[in-house]
Amino acid sequence: MRDVTKMERIGAHSHIHGLGLDANLEPRVNSQGMIGQGKARKAAGVILKMVQEGRIAGRAILMAGPPSSGKTAIAMGMAQTLGTDVPFVMLTASEVYSLEMSKTESLTQAFRRSIGVRIKEETELIEGEVVEIQVDRSVTGATKTGRLTLKTTDMETVYDLGSKMIDQLQKEKVLAGDVVSIDKASGRISKLGRSFGRAKDYDAMGADTRFVACPDGELQVRKEVVHTVSLHEIDVINSRTQGFLALFAGDTGEIKPELRDQINGKVAEWREEGKAEIVPGVLFIDEVHMLDIECFSFLNRALENEMAPLVVMASNRGITRIRGTKYKSPHGIPTDLLDRMLIISTGKYDQTEIREIVKIRADEEDVRLSPDALELLATLGQKTSLRYALNLIAPSQLLAQRRKLTSVEVEDVKMAYQYFCDVERSTTYARETSGMMFGEEEITNGHVAMDTSA
Ligand SMILES: Nc1ncnc2c1ncn2[C@@H]1O[C@H](COP(=O)(O)OP(=O)(O)OP(=O)(O)O)[C@@H](O)[C@H]1O
Ligand SMILES: [Mg+2]
């Protein structure tokens, strides 16, 4: 999910690069694309700190607040702050309903996707500065053999090369004077940089050339490499019916509980041997009121599992019906689950904050707004909603371009305001024209009765 948000250059939240907190977790006024909502941002920061210290797995947080008050935005900020090693999985509650998988299976998969397993491996590497590469081609050119001379400050050794290694050296454009690292098991070559000793050899060198010192000591070194995979990835790779290709296709289907048990056992074994570490990540469930009572009772239980992530949920509903029951409760969440949660509330923005957010979004969308147009958008945002104001930026720009202007003026925003209704005007319109539009109660016995008397 994270990758998709990176690709979407001007998605709704592409201006957000973090939570905008300082080292003491105090919210900065305008930082990393974040404006206002200080209390909620700070709370999110405190929670992240606990996640990073591995202290808060198996808890649930609820972000509750009116529409467009930055709940999803704060979740995106959290994802950006966590770092690449800690999983952050985003799910919209309605994604749980699918024909291919039961609801609990897709929640289980989401849970397991949010738990990272950091696996430590020792590998043997050969690291040194290239002294010479010699390649001998046979007469037909079909076979290649060669020799690679590597040195450290203390020793020098000649290695025989096969054709695969020669191809790799050529692909990486390795030259004498480069410092390289070769993985002994896989034979993979990576260039670490150019040796300082050769810095003066060439006068034409790219600005991005990195100079490194010639390594000292032995050519062969042992290094610890660490990779992090999620529990779900381990499940998929080990499920015989799926195979790892399913990771790319995405349709993993259901995974057998026995297999999960086996994997849990194996991971526990690795942990005891010190080969692996569990990294509980964050699972974000947006629009959580869309989950039904079965999902909620599953969550109650799943949160108590020792390998549970931190679950962050968001909802913009007040007292509403819990899906699958006739009971009402705050945010459509059963009270026994609510009782286990920490609740962060987000509030409406004032006009100054809306102005700043509009300004950031306009920059993000490469739109120039005149000061008056910006002020008008901020006023509109205050009167209608922040989303509406943000949505008007692009149409206003188009209208300005039609008039051959390089920046958006008040007139363009006014025009856009006339062309596109906000929720309030749309509701009024729907009321006024209720007789002419299809409504639920007008469909009787399979055919539509239209009442045009209004
Ligand atoms: N504090 C903020 N700083 C910068 N941009 C923000 C902030 N809050 C919201 N935005 C932007 O405003 C828009 C609406 O906010 P967002 O989608 O986060 O609202 P929401 O609370 O999730 O609403 P809903 O309940 O309707 O899902 C988004 O484009 C978001 O990036
Ligand atoms: Mg949202």
From TrEMBL:
The record's subcellular location field reads: Nucleus
Q: Name one GO molecular function term.
A: ATP binding
Q: State one Pfam family annotation.
A: TIP49_C
Q: Which GO terms describe its biological process?
A: chromatin organization; DNA repair
Does the keyword section mention Transcription regulation?
yes
Q: What class of enzyme is it?
A: hydrolase
Catalyzed reactions: ATP + H2O = ADP + phosphate + H(+)
Q: Per the UniProt record, which EC number(s) apply here?
A: 3.6.4.12
Chief subcellular site?
nucleus
- Family matches, as InterPro entries: AAA+_ATPase, P-loop_NTPase, RuvB-like, RuvB-like_C, RuvBL1/2_DNA/RNA_bd_dom, TIP49_P-loop
Would the keyword Amino-acid biosynthesis turn up in this protein's UniProt record? no
Q: Which UniProt keywords apply?
A: Activator, ATP-binding, Chromatin regulator, DNA damage, DNA repair, Helicase, Hydrolase, Nucleotide-binding, Nucleus, Transcription, Transcription regulation
Family, according to the entry, reads as follows: Belongs to the RuvB family.
Query: What interactions and quaternary structure are annotated?
Result: May form heterododecamers with RVB1. Component of the SWR1 chromatin remodeling complex, the INO80 chromatin remodeling complex, and of the R2TP complex.
Protein function: DNA helicase which participates in several chromatin remodeling complexes, including the SWR1 and the INO80 complexes. The SWR1 complex mediates the ATP-dependent exchange of histone H2A for the H2A variant HZT1 leading to transcriptional regulation of selected genes by chromatin remodeling. The INO80 complex remodels chromatin by shifting nucleosomes and is involved in DNA repair. Also involved in pre-rRNA processing.
Q: What is this protein called?
A: RuvB-like helicase
